Amino acid sequence: MFYHDKKLQYTVKVDKPNPQFARALQQAIGGIEGEIRVCLQYLFQAWNSRGPVRYRDMLLNTGTEEIAHIEMLATAVCLNLEGAPSSVVDTIVGNDPVMEKIMGGGDPRHFLSGGMGALAADANGVPFNGS
Fold first, then answer.
1. What is the C-alpha to C-alpha distance for residues 106 and 18, in angstroms, rounded to an integer?
2. Which residues lie across from 121 on neighbouring strands?
3. 65-92: per-residue pLDDT in tens?
4. Is the pTM of this model over 0.70?
5. Are 27 and 123 in contact, with CB atoms under 8 Å apart?
6. How far from 124 is each of 12, 30, 64, 76, 92, CA to CA, in Å?
7. Which class is domain 19-112?
8. Residue 129: per-residue pLDDT
9. In the chain, where are the structural domains located?
10. 17, 106, 113, 122: which sits with the fewest CB atoms below 10 Å from its CB?
11. 24: closest CA among 69, 84, 77?
């Protein structure tokens, strides 16, 4: 069972919106070494544990803490997208979204698919799949 207490593990602050940094944070969420993978790895190790209960509990606690890391990173992605000047959004999405994404370093999916928020994907928009 998981418990959510409606506050972040640590306060997340952003001085100025930065969609390019949001993209980098996106990789930390859903990339191959990202928090989603780590979280699920710990949780499945715990659920599959047949040894002493204390090891199962340690793995469950660690996996649960990883959920908090995902929440903080997702909040940081949102804050880096929230309030971004429309000129920044226009530049990233632009007339040629593919070229603007490549050259601008932003991710149009944050604007087009994510509702200005984080996704369960890597920085290239590839959905997390656990592989």
1. 9
2. 127
3. 999 999 999 999 999 988 776 665 566 5
4. yes
5. yes
6. 24, 10, 26, 18, 14
7. mainly alpha
8. 80
9. 19-112
10. 113
11. 77
Secondary element (H or E) of residue 91? helix 86-93
More confidently predicted of 111 and 54: 54
Three-class DSSP category at 107 = coil
Dmax over CA atoms of the chain, in Å, equals: 58
d(CA 56, CA 18): 40
What's the number of CA atoms in the CB half-sphere (13 Å) around residue 28? Answer: 16
15-22: average pLDDT: 86
> What one-character DSSP code corresponds to residue 51?
S
How far is Cα 76 from Cα 18, in angstroms, rounded to an integer?
10
H-run or E-run covering 48: none
- What distance in Å separates the CA atoms of residue 19 and residue 79, rounded to the nearest whole number? 9
% of the chain exceeding 90 in pLDDT: 37
List, in order, residues 6 or more apart from 7 with CB less than 8 Å away: none
**Residue that has been written with the tokens 């998981």 in this structure:** 2
Cα of 107 vs its chain's centroid, Å: 13
